Amino acid sequence: MRNLTILFLGAFLAACAVPQTQTPKVTPVDTEIEEKKQRELAMGALVETEKRLYTVGYPLLTHGTPLCGDKVSPSIGMLVWNKHRFKEEWQEAIASKYGVTDLVQVAHVSPGSPADRAGIKVGDLPVSINGWLVPTGEDSLEEFWENLNERKLESDPIEFIMRRGDSDITASVIPEPACDFELVLDDKDTKNAYADGKRIVVHRGLMEFFKTDQEVALIIAHELAHNAMGHVEAKQINAIVGGLIGLMADVASAAGGVNTQGQFTDLGAKAGAGAYSVDFEKEADYVGLYLMALAGYEIEGVADFWRRMAVQDPKVIRLRGTHPTTPERFVGIEKAVSEIQRKIAGGLALRPENKRVVVGEKR
């Protein structure tokens, strides 16, 4: 059998067409060198995209506190990394391009943030925080953030000793309030972003689609609004209510001798989770524009983003599932922009309008 297989493969290869030109010889060493370069380029692009996300998002988090209620915590506007933040296959590239090692290193400082005002710079190596020595190694990032978060709640200012080159410098940082939601770049090439109640996640594919920082701010503010307005929690509650109603139907069916295997419970939970989904999206668009205005971002013309999305994916012009159509979003945002501009011109507070209860209207 084995000999027949070899004969068959030999006959197959002999019958196949072959290239006609003499291509340049590519050695494994050449390929390895180019692979290293491409990994560095890919890592550099990812890091720059992540920096853009934080640079645009940080003002939204700090200026948006009036709309975040009790979901606020102290922030210093600084990110750190070491090689252990990355998968092993990428550690050589990050080390080669940015000099990242086992040591905790400042990766990003948001312009105008407390860390920036204190003189902390990208590349600084934190030596200590209020006398606590910063560790090295695989778990050092987790320990760093755990300790820093404790200091942010207990101490004002926070005293850092940073190694910069051959010298140690002292940086006194006074935290500022910020909406307590983490900004996360997901390395997927899809045009998507979401909020989960604790984080604001933006996919790399969407970041690459943005033409301007105004568009980046629009989407971050939209997802921030979801978290600030408690939409994730509201959907969870609606899912529970829908599930309970479905459960009653399952119980009633069982009493009648029909085993539904919990189908009504599942259907009720899904229906509940989707209830008011479009309205929540509209509210996130609306509140998000106020967050942009509070952070000082230009809101004029920002609705054009949804025209670009319609050109990119025409089916969203009419598709109305869990989200409004792109024409609905464009018109709604344009009207909200006019509302906000009137308030700015009149010197009024930038706060979203709440629903008014009319006499005789059911609450």
Counted beta strands: 11
What is the SS-derived class? alpha+beta
Distance between the termini: 81 Å
Mean pLDDT: 86
Low-confidence stretches: 241-250, 271-276, 357-363
What is the overall number of helices?
12
What fraction of the residues are assigned to beta strands by DSSP? 5-15%
Label the overall shape: flat
Largest sheet: 4 strands, antiparallel
Characterise this structure.
The protein is an alpha+beta fold and 363 residues long. The protein folds into two domains: 72-177, Pdz3 Domain, CATH 2.30.42.10; 182-345, no CATH class. Helix content is 51%, strand content 14%. It has twelve helices and eleven strands. The chain has helices at 2-15, 28-63, 88-98, 114-117, 140-154, 204-209, 213-228, 231-255, 263-274, 277-294, 304-312, 326-345, and strands at residues 72-75, 78-81, 105-109, 125-129, 132-133, 158-164, 167-173, 176-179, 182-186, 193-195, 199-203. The strands form four sheets. The protein has a four-stranded antiparallel β-sheet. Strand 6 and strand 7 form a beta hairpin. Helix 2 (28-63) packs across helix 3, helix 2 (28-63) crosses helix 7 (213-228) and helix 10 (277-294) runs parallel beside helix 12. The longest helix is centred in the N-terminal third of the chain and has 36 residues, at 28-63. The radius of gyration is 27 Å and the shape is flat.
